[in-house]
Design the sequence.
């Protein structure tokens, strides 16, 4: 199907060479992994939904002046993006305690945090993406102090936008992960939001029922992941009531 040159293959996406220099094609796979690939499934249609949901979010970020790598969606599974130099950090923004924060600090999941908290994890599968401090980031040269400031400013803006977007459709944004890259334009470089933002990388709880509409359905064996992602897409108004992203429901391949 794809005769283009493959640049990189990750857990949930493949990057191909783009049609013009400085562009890449980001392909969304159906693979779901957790706990650093110790848990793996293929969920038919997940990639299609994440492509659409991430497109929706990145189009809006671009339109409110938050710079991203996103150019346009090309088809059901692929989007055209600008080639950036990915900074090897996961930027996690938390509004409500959950997941690793709850475990690490003994704060009950669902506790509203006194303010939004930004954390950095070093992207390294062999080390299970450890939490790192700004000291480590600058000492080891992963990003400069100015770049850390830029990433934090972007993270706060993205958090404000996403919180409002999801609140408007009855969803509480608990936390999310984003990645940044260096976009070179001639001699100029700026930090932009890269990768994806989707229910794979956010915690999204229904405001009324507190039902999880995100990848915790997979991590915690709750089932119904595809239906949850479809529900997010439906509420965002990017999927018709009757549209199915392929297959008639979640197909879990053990
Ligand atoms: N997250 C992610 N990729 C990762 C780790 C975390 O997208 O490799 C997201 C996760 O979906 C959640 C947020 O980052 O929205 C915070 O995750 P946490 O640190 O609590 O880790 P987890 O409990 O998922 O191991």
Sequence:
């Amino acid at each position: 199907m794809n005769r283009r040159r493959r640049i990189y293959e990750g857990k949930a996406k493949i990057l191909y060479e783009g049609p013009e220099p400085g562009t890449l094609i980001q392909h969304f796979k159906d693979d779901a992994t957790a706990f650093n690939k110790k848990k793996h499934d293929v969920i038919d249609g997940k990639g299609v939904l994440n492509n659409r949901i991430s497109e929706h979010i990145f189009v809006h970020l671009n339109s409110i002046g938050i710079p991203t790598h996103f150019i346009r969606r090309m088809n059901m599974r692929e989007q055209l993006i600008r080639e950036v130099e990915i900074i090897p950090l996961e930027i996690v923004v938390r509004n409500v305690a959950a997941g690793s924060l709850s475990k690490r600090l003994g704060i009950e999941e669902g506790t509203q945090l006194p303010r939004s908290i930004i954390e950095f994890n070093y992207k390294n599968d062999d080390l299970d993406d450890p939490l790192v401090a700004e000291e480590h980031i600058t000492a080891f040269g992963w990003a400069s102090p100015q770049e850390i400031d830029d990433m934090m400013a972007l993270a706060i803006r993205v958090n404000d936008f996403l919180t409002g977007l999801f609140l408007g459709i009855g969803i509480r944004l608990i936390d999310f992960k984003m990645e940044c890259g260096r976009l070179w334009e001639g001699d100029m470089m700026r930090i932009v939001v890269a990768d994806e933002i989707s229910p794979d990388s956010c915690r999204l709880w229904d405001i009324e029922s507190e039902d999880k509409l995100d990848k915790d359905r997979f991590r915690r064996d709750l089932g119904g992941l595809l239906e949850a992602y479809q529900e997010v897409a439906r509420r965002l108004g990017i999927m018709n009531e009757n549209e199915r992203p392929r297959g008639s429901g979640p197909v879990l391949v053990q």
Residues 85-206 form a domain with the D-amino Acid Aminotransferase; Chain A, domain 1 fold (CATH 3.30.470.20). The helical segments are 46-63, 99-105, 134-139, 145-167, 216-219, 225-235. The radius of gyration is 18 Å. The chain has two domains: 6-84+225-236, 85-206.
